[in-house]
Write a structure and sequence with these properties.
Blueprint: H1 5-9, H2 17-31, H3 40-56, H4 59-66, E1 96-97, E2 100-101, H5 102-114, E3 131-137, H6 139-144, E4 146-151, E5 157-162, E6 171-174, E7 188-194, E8 201-203, E9 206-214, H7 215-220, E10 222-226, E11 233-237, E12 246-249, E13 264-271, H8 278-290
Helix pairs in contact: 2-3
Length: 299
């Protein structure tokens, strides 16, 4: 059985949904296999944190766990005649009546049913196992959500709904999509991985991109077109901008643990034209002669 999910994420039982999401995001970021290649301990911590977030990040599952209706693995807890889970009643071994342990009687009944001794099907049947798979998604899909079809090596396919605001390392649980069993199929656990983007670099919940600007726009200021995950927008370049100047596009980054959108930062890169004409060359020669200066190293 898994450990207490609250302990796995390091939060209290009164933690808010935002605090739970933030705690998972921090653990997933520091223990992700891509960050710690070959580190089995980090990989195990990542898996445990993902399973804990799968339970506590779902409001309905969290309520059932807090009420003692399901265990830390998400399995329903079967209860005895007193309404307590089996094995938690009085006596050293569980429930006792006149010196007879009722758990022994129940176990004998279950063993008889598992041997096919005429008992009702399902009482001693086992649930099918969970199956695990990884699914790469685009950054835009992580932000906006969407649907993806996942194909397994042995033929089956699953349609996976990506929730808006998905985070790298998040595990989705697809109920009843796992291995078959007499008590019903297990679940499919799908771990999401956001693939690198050709334009935007992820830095936590923030996105950063390089934005080329012309010399006239850098000197005089002006409007330029800037890409965002939702499409291009118009961005104002301040007069006298230089390479390295950072412009913020608020709410255009990744989703934060609290549920709000992070920001997108455009790092300006002053870029000369591909073809240097005589006028530009003559201007530069005159500037160097009459107004020499030495750029200071930044950072």
């Amino acid at each position: 059985m898994a450990r207490d999910p609250y302990q796995e994420l390091g939060v209290s039982r009164e933690a808010s949904a935002g605090e739970i999401r933030k705690a998972f995001h921090k653990l997933a970021k520091s223990n992700h296999p891509d960050v710690n290649p070959g580190d089995k301990a980090s990989e195990e911590r990542f898996k445990r944190a993902s399973a804990a977030f799968d339970l506590l990040g779902d409001e309905d599952k969290r309520k059932k766990f807090d009420a003692g209706e399901i265990d830390a693995d998400g399995r329903e807890i079967q209860r005895g005649f007193s309404g307590q889970p089996f094995g938690q009643g009085g006596g050293a071994g569980g429930f006792e009546f006149d010196g007879v342990d009722i758990n022994d009687i129940i176990n004998d009944m279950l063993r008889g049913q598992n041997r096919g001794g005429g008992g009702r099907r399902g009482r001693g049947a086992t649930r099918g196992g969970d199956v695990r798979a990884s699914l790469e998604i685009d950054l835009e899909e992580a932000i906006a959500g969407g649907k993806k079809r996942l194909s397994f090596h042995d033929g089956p396919t699953l349609d996976v709904t990506i929730p808006a605001g998905a985070v790298d390392g998040q595990v989705l649980r697809l109920k009843g999509q796992g291995a078959p069993g007499r008590a019903g199929p297990g679940d499919a656990l799908i771990e999401l991985s956001i693939r690198p983007h050709p334009v935007f670099k992820r830095e936590g919940d923030t996105l950063v991109m390089d934005l080329p600007v012309s010399v006239p726009d850098a000197v005089l200021g002006g409007k330029v077109e800037a890409p965002t995950p939702e499409g291009p927008v118009s961005l104002t370049v301040p007069k006298g901008s230089n390479t390295g100047t950072m412009l913020r596009l608020k709410g255009r980054g990744l989703n934060e643990a609290s549920g709000r959108r992070g920001d997108l930062f455009a790092r300006l890169v002053v870029t000369l034209p591909e073809t240097m004409d005589d006028d530009l060359t003559a201007f530069a020669e005159g500037w160097r002669r009459d107004r020499p200066y030495s750029p200071k190293r930044r950072g």
